[in-house]
Amino acid sequence: MAPNLNTGEVTSLLVQWRSGDVEVPERLMPLLYAELRKIASSHLRRSQGYNTLQPTALIHEAWLRLADQTQVNASDRIHFFGICSRLMRLILVDNLRQKNAGKRGGGLGNVPLNEAVAGAKQQGRDVEALHMALEALEKIDTRKAQIVELRYFGGLTAEEISQHLNIGTATITRDLRTAQAWLARELGATR
Question: What is the structure's pLDDT at 113?
Answer without folding.
Answer: 33
